[in-house]
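Archive entry. Fields below.
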Amino acid sequence: MSGRGPALYSLLLRMLPRAFRERHGAAMADTFAALHAEAIRAGRGRVARLWLRELWDVVNTGAVLRWRASWLSGSLKATSHGNSPVTEPGRRRTIGNLSDDARLAWRATTRSRGFFALAALTLALGIGATTAMYSVLKPVVLDPLPFPEAERLVTVWRTWGESGAGSNARLALEPEHVQALRGERDVFDAVEEYRATSATLTGLGEPERINTLKVTRGLPSLMGVQPVLGRVFSAEELRDDGVRVALLSHSFWRARFGGRMDVTGSTLEIDGETWTVIGVMPRVAVRPDGEPQAVHVWLPLADTDPNRLTIARLTAGTSLAAAAARADAIVQRDGDGTLVGSARPVLLAGPLHEHLRLLMIAVLLLLGIACVNVANLLLQRGAARHTETALRAALGAGRLRLVRQFLIESVIVAAVGGLLGAALAYAGLRALLALRPVQLEALHAVHIDARVLLFALGIATAAGVLTGLRPALSGSRVDATAALGRAGRTVGGTTRFRWTLVTAEVALSFVLLVGAALVVTSLRELAARDPGYRADGLIAVEVRLPSWRYANEPARASAFEQILDGVRRMPSVTSVSLANGMPPRLSGGWFGHVKVEGRPRETHPSRFNSVEADARFLETLGQPLLAGRGFIDGDASSDLLPVILTESAARRLFPGEPATGRRFHFELPPDHTVIGVVRDIRATGLAEGDSEPLGYWPLRNVRAQMTIVVRVHAEDPQVLLDLRQVVRLTEPDAIVDVATARELLGATIARERFTTMLLSTFAALALLLAAVGLYGVLSQMVVGRTHEFGVRMALGADAGRIHALVLRSGLLATLGGLTVGALLAGAGLRVLRSEVYGLAAQQPTAYGLAAAVLLFVALAAMVGPAARAAGLDPMRAIRVD
Amino acid sequence: MPATPLSPLTMAILLALLNGDQHGYTLMQEVRSQTDGALAPGTGSLYAALQRLLDDGLITDSPDHPAAGEDGRRKYFRITPAGRAAARAEARRMARVLETARAARLIRDTPTLRGAE
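PREDICTED_STRUCTURE:
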């Protein structure tokens, strides 16, 4: 008797009730040790079999004993010190019956595997989908800021202009604003600043782009977080010339330092400089504005850092409106008369949240359908066993006993469904994370929320138990003689209730189907949109030179010239251009009050996307010129300050007149001259609404990060690899990102694709569940009315009539469900309206498509039962009972 | 004495104890060989059944064990007079069932059970 086996078994015994364990635990462990030794002598396979059997046996015994104990509390205690007298008969009966019931229920469930599998799978689907979805939603929507009293955190921006083009432009506050806000102690507990940016990490393998969060000293305490290791920045470290110290984010620490406890004092190479690690932030320390972007490293925010964002903690009881009014008062100024604005604390929200909320609604619908379906299955089973129930009642089984057995069955189904559901939730979460759009990249810390799992399981079990009780109660109340006399025929009330359930299922599935059809057609239209340039054969090579080694412009320019030379020499390349971005990934923009020559300055600010590009850009992109000319080599140094506008930009500045030759400037002179007009393109992606105005400026200043725009004969994977190689040849420490225009365009609708895929999956599952429900009820109906059908046939009804009779019942329920579903979907569309592009135009199609799919599946579910009814032999059908 | 039939496992345990006190492991082997392996309870089930027999007063802890020098954890069980009576009643009931089945020509011969009669 050796090894860890017996010790492990003793641990397993903890699953047994305490009194029992205390009484028999040691002896059981001894017995097991003997069995274990015997199995070891017999060989490996026997040990495994022993374990399987004993594991199952302990779980089972634990359950049986607890049931027994709950009905006979104290019996163990009474007998543990000696012999008890023979138990009185009444008591004995209860004990025996209870464990028998459990066994009976277990046997019943394992015997009818079809029912069992269906019910458990249905539950698992509902539970798994809800839990996985909720686990993603929780950190993004419900709890984006896992900080204490996060509702008191506000971001403060400056906005330009109350309405018009500039109203949604959010600008950073000026330093004096922040200083003034800090003075308002009665409204703002604390005002801190941060800046989210990115940097190049070298010295740990391949150079890598990381996200950094530069923060002021008080930001961690404003968020209510403390480093889990080490300390926060000191006042000296926050000065511009301070020591270079960094805090690691929890995930970065785990990923790059293996969670080592002695990480403080290690160094990082960030943008060519050496930074010393002084601590590790906790897992909850996400971005203070709740944006789901990963933060890798926290750095001190220097006084000279531009583009600072402001976050404040309101004093307790201060309303958002009060804070906004105070901030407005501070920021409002009319200095040079061009900037009049207000600051608005913006509660954290965004379009992505809407998408996820939509998905949550969908998944709740699915859970609802799953519950209805389980209820339906249990009802069906209850109805099918009506005779058995009545028989047992007639033989003296008490009502309690009958109810108990149904309950135990429901619990078994719920337990297995719950386990499967947990597994599905885990797999689903993995899939969600693998497919998530880039906006959710920070979701690596997502885990299954145990409370939600329990919640979903609870709801599903409650639904099962409540409906499980119905047949048990009605069965135990039934007059046995009457019930037995019409054995096999279902009880009217239950059947009606089940039809209602099926109608509800169809309705809910229809809502999901309409939603899915809408987003699918919307996505197809989005994907088929013309970007305005020739996207096929177009490749963007984004290159980021190690900025610390290329401090001056000529060095950068010559490095890129060298790279461009290499690219031009590649045989498959037809055209190459250098720019600061390529649609749909643009980095530049102009913002300000436009002043067109010969007209007064506009009162509202405008926003233009901008690209700085060399002379080959338009040709390489494949964007047609409509008027004037493209850039030529001397344009960058020309006094004209030439600019090329897209149609809509030209129309916006010079409505109804030719734009070429006209001059204008943003905010400050000198004027630019329009030398050409090109066709509109979707500058920022396929999901973009109307084309945003876009202007091209000649490339003057080569920065560390540039995009090489390449047109090739054919996009083969080797070309992409070769392009990367060409860059590396010139500068091995450069960060290179090679992507085809098609990939980039696809990424701009990744969010829509994600929503669509999930919604379609949910809709398909819902449809499946509804079909199962429909099939179940119809089959049951056919069985229940066999006798009646037999009589009808004997009286002259032909098979076709019977067939039609069954189909009619099913169709009635389906059409009822469709009607209710259409009403529900109409109401639900208000939620969708903001989500789906071109919604109104697609509505009829989506409804039609959804109805067609649903009817088809419903009919498929009806065919079997209807055929069975039609194929009945009347003589035998009459005798059924 | 319980009026309801004994479960196969309970009956097998009582039969095994007729030949003297036993502990868990030997009981398990006994039950297995009695039924040619048809009944092979897990440890948990065995002890749950033993507890029920204890509750009903059909068996008791053996006062002679563990003997000196024996593993203190090893618990022996002994059949009580009530247990003997219950097993006898059950055997008689089985015999009657057998007779009835034979008379109805359901079965002809049951050599394995004849010895137990």
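CURATOR_NOTE: Confidence is low (pLDDT under 50) at residues 113-117 of chain B.
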